[in-house]
Amino acid sequence: xxxxxxxxxxxxxILQETFGETCSWQNCxxxxxxxxxxxxxxxxxxxxxxxxxxxxxxxxxxAHKDLVPVGVQYIIDSVATELQKDLSxxxxxxxxxxLWRWINTHSDFQRHNLAKLVQKGQIEIVGGGWVQNDEATxxxxxxxxxxxxGLRKLNETFGKCGAPSIAWQIDPFGHSREMANLxxxxxxxxxxxxxxxxxxxxxxxxxxxxxxxWNASDDLKTNILTGAFYQDNxxxxxxxxxxxxxxxxxxxxxxxxxxxxxxxxxxEAFLKHVKKQASHLRTxxxxxxxxxxxxxxxxxxxxxxxxxxxxxxxxxxxxxKVRVFYSTPSCYVEALSEAQPRLxxxxxxxxxxxxxxxxxxxxxxxxxxxxxxxxxxxSSFLQLLKQLDAFACLGPMDEGDLDVLRRATALMQHHxxxxxxxxxxxxxxxxKRLAAGWNExxxxxxxxLSKLVLKDDKxxxxxxxxxxxxxxxxxxxxxxxxGEFTATVFNSNSHPLSTVVRLPYYSRDAIIxxxxxEHIESQLVKTFFGTNQLxxxxxxxxxxxxPVDIPALGFATYxxxxxxxxxxxxxxxxxxxxxxxxxxxxxxxxxxxxTVNISxxxxxxxxxEDGYVSTIKNIHTGQTTKMRQExxxxxxxxxxxxxxxxxxxxxxxxxxxxxxxxxSNITLQVVQGPLISEVRQTVNKWITQIIRLxxxxxxxxxxxxxxxxxxxxxxxxTKEVITRYITEIASNGEFFTDANGRQIMPRKRNFSPxxxxxxxxxxxSNYYPVNSRIFIKDANTQLTVLNDRSQGGSSLHDGQIELMxxxxxxxxxxxxxxxxxxxxxxxxxxxxxxxIHWIIIDSPTASxxxxxSLAFELFHSPQLSFAPLQLSVEQxxxxxxxxxxxxxxxxxxxxxILTLEQWTGKSLLxxxxxxxxxxxxxxxxxxxxVDVEGLFTSFNVxxxxxxxxxxxxxxxxxxxxxxxxxxxxxxxxxxxxxFSIELKPMEIRTFKVEVDMEKC
Length: 1000
What we know:
The chain is α+β, with helices and mostly antiparallel strands. The longest helix is centred in the middle third of the chain and has 29 residues, at 424-452.
């Protein structure tokens, strides 16, 4: 596959030299310079989902015509054929994933013709990511990766004309401020989308503010020209859809056929529409979208009718003062730049999105929680693999194909993938693609370790490494079948990690040796089976807890033996504090009606007699906070008829404002040991939880397991399960959520800064996407919740935070998927989901330093690989390195290595990020300088070339726009002082790094 890709790139690069490049923005059809003439830009386009109702392959090939009777390959074929007939025709294409699929399956001649159309400006690439990513549930690291992946393919294929200037987010269900910030840092000149809250849409129509300047970051002062479409979708005006999916009449211009001739009627309707649309804009330019979902499979039908429309409308230009022509989004932005209107500004975001008074698109923030968790873990795994690939200098001769996971993870960011809004069989196909990427990733680990761990004797072979994909279910076959084994713990974070890892274990004895060969303390506990929600028969009876210290961008190998010894770990019994109860209980008997507490020397957690958390004490500061955590569920609205809005994959619509409370009498098991202390809660038959304190950690871990959510035999009731953290913090209606895991967005209950709030759905309208954290605070205390996947969250009452963890809906919400969100799970009885929250309670001044670093620690949770140990520990250590770091020294606390991967030739792609916003921390919210000379162990840095965030253009390259609204695109790079790189708060800087790989 690697060889085929290289041949395709080589062939197209040769073709690029055979004709000159006049990209779309350099080859616009002429518009009228007369101010009283209305210029109508026809934007021919198709929106092609990479999976939704059908799988990505089914969409591409045109399978299952009963669902959608087209194939994307034929759309590209048809458009390319029709564009060659008339040089004035234009077309805009967005989905690189499908385009690259087409390039890989067509002849050199066909690829040549397509490339020629791009480089002559007839085809404009917009967006350019592998997919059109979601903006609510996608993490910024994934967004940057998928954009970089898609744009790199375009650059390799089409050269400079393949580098889009316009961001094209026409279908995502709400839009984030951080996404606009990322687009600005990538150098995009404009951003267009279709979906925004119906009340904000009405307000913008009223104020002629559909086009505006979006101030995307208070820290970086980035901004970008943004346009919301006039219509409520991204399709053509009524009566002007010339596609097989539409029933609109074509333009019939045979004057002798009086009964069918409709030119005057069509022209009049067209002029009426464009003049009405123009009345809501601030220039004499109007953008009309001509196309929609999977349209243009017969492009001839479209272009014949649009040619006629242009001909007959322009014939009356002197009379009507309207000129219509084929255009592209970049030509439209060029026209706006020339007109230089005074545009309003926006500082907030577009969440939550509502299409009507009862249709709030906030359910998908949580839909398919296990799939969302799998995507997040896959992203973290991908970062690790890219680093290992770079440090080990892997090449085409190595067996592992990193692109399989890179491509799959990029695909998952699609706005019907990570959102959880595709059909069940499509979601399973997505998961299979991720799993295939993980399989290749294991080979990458083996390829890399075989080069990084060998000492003097290079002929030795490292035992084959395996990973345990079901480790969170306490299942690991390689451990079960091995009396002695190695556990290699990887840290993809650019800061060292000290934590406790948990392994499934099948023996009552364990001896642990550290990388240096010394025996270390461990802890052995019985697995918490709860109510047997996870029905797997291979679950280990025990968990082995090992304290680990892993260097930055590195790994450490630990040794485990189940032999009996005086050093063996002994089973830590489940127990309770007998002093707080009169009657003695056996180690295995659950606790009911007792107060218990746990502590790790940093935090102490007390539980009341009902089994709920009651108080949390910071032992170092002495601060005690009253807190209660409980599970509840909303009953979702359910209707079989489309006239009423149900809760479903997209929509969250609870019946009423008060969720149902679950068990008020929780049973507990308490485990206290040297490494972890935990309280195991059984809430009911389908909800269990472990509340855990880890040695040396200043947070509380809440590990929840939910499911299968019950389904009634008749008239089943949709259930949307939440966790609620209740404190006495005087939050005054305010709370804060992250935007795509990065900048913090202030929220206010029952309020919007962009329109007058109407309380039609008091719960759903206050839900926001939470990718990494949500917090509330007052003058003295801040409660922060970190999560391990995207979830919907809110603060519906002062002092409270709630996050939706799982949902099971039994009615379709009538937004296209035509399927209820009723996941069967592995058992067929319903999905069981397990996830983690980290809870921080501290002062508002101390909390940012904690949640900024801990969010990265949670994202980069350690990955483990295992192998049977066939040598003694001493022999293994003499043969293989057991401790490795890709870095020679530590980074400042406010700096992270966001990206490190092989790029081209002897170059790497390096992104450095300042992770703090202004005014978050007195010392860390300051500019910082990093010297990358001698920073890495496997190679020496020779030179740096700064690129934009997407790595597809040099940062210092001048913009071709005469008047740009994007400040970041006008900023020249700050040249590094030698190899010293300055970073300002929230800044990400991207470099192509030439390296000397002699150390490899």
